[in-house]
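This follows on from our talk about sequence and fold. Can you supply me with one protein entry, sequence and fold together? Could you add the entry underneath, on a fresh line?
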Amino acid sequence: MIEKITGPVFEYLAEDKRLIKLARKIGLPLGGTFFVGGQTLDETVGTVQTLNQDGRAATIDCLGEFIESEKDAIDIADECIKVIHRISEDQLNAQVSLKLTSVGLRLNPEIAFAQMTRILETAERFDMRVTINMEEEAVCESIIHVFEQLRTRFSNVGIALQANLYRSRFDLERLQSTVRVVKGAYTGPADIYIERKETVDATYLQLVKQNLLQGCYTQVATHDEDMIQEVIRFVHQQGIGFEQFEFQMLQGMRPNRQKELVEEGFRVVIYVPHGVDWYTYLMKRLAERPANIVFTAISMLRL
């Protein structure tokens, strides 16, 4: 498969500090605007306003890829809090997402817990949901442990689970919570990660259906039309109200289908990356899905 060739190349580029520094200096006109909301808050707000105009909501993902100190973690949390305030001030139809590693999980889980508490306290004042992104399996248990601690105090926090991890079906039953179900972008040992696409697809639908039947709010994050159609069929069959779930897609992916789903009466939330670490995010998306290269090239030619 082509991603086995291009994937390592883009993973290398994602971590190249010289290119990261250059990208931050040049800014998004380098070609990232197709997939990234903005490097500055004003840019991201403009992207979300455009989405809101035709009924699409947003989850603004506060990027933070290179955390080396507690100060770095605090800075990312501060930026996330600014985003929350701006969402409220501009009356945007939006929520926020972030990685726990961006607020210090690898340094010390207590740092991540403290920063997430600050973020959730702010979001709670505005009745806003915050979703914790899932990451590679090595930090999966730490993420879930911090999430469980936060959930004892906050009802506005959700978490993502990956269908390509064997453990996710047990985590779903354990958590009984608001969950974003994704297929999963990380890979690893065959006894930890599901490699076969058909099995990942089946697991994905199992997770979505189980969470819906548990009565938990479910964020159905997929661009796969077969998955979308099966979820629609299932909720109709089970009499599950549209208020119990939402479809989520990445910014720049299937925009026409996003609008169609809105017109069909579904809540559609677009994942909008925000921040100076947009370059690393973009390179990792290209590593995962080579077809994104075409979209990015078109975006660069339009600028």
User: Anything to note?
Assistant: Confidence is low (pLDDT under 50) at residues 295-303.
